[in-house]
Amino acid sequence: CWVCLVFFGLVHYEFISTGQTINQVFYKQVLERLREKVRRKRPEAWKSKSWFLHHDNVPAHSALSIREFLASKNI
Question: Helix (H, G, I), strand (E, B), or coil: what is residue 13?
């Protein structure tokens, strides 16, 4: 069984196997891949910095390292 994370419709998606822990390290890697996909697939949004990320406050999303990463990348 797989879980799918979808960002911005079809800009980026990942399949995650059952039992995979989504911690701050894993989530940061996903965010890095997401940024690259937005840059390549939505260049107008990338250049104008008109895109934003909306996520909930689960521990992996609200960890200090994730908040610092998002702030450093202006997300």
Answer: strand
| pLDDT confidence of residue 25 | 93
4-16 mean pLDDT: 68
Q: Tokens 């980026």, residue? A: 12
pTM confidence score: 0.79
pLDDT at 17 over 60: yes
Give the C-alpha distances (Å, rounded to integers) separating 44 from 3, 9, 51, 73, 74. 30, 16, 10, 17, 16
Query: Which helix (H) or strand (E) element contains residue 2?
Result: strand 2-7
Contact of 63 with 24, CB cutoff 8 Å: yes
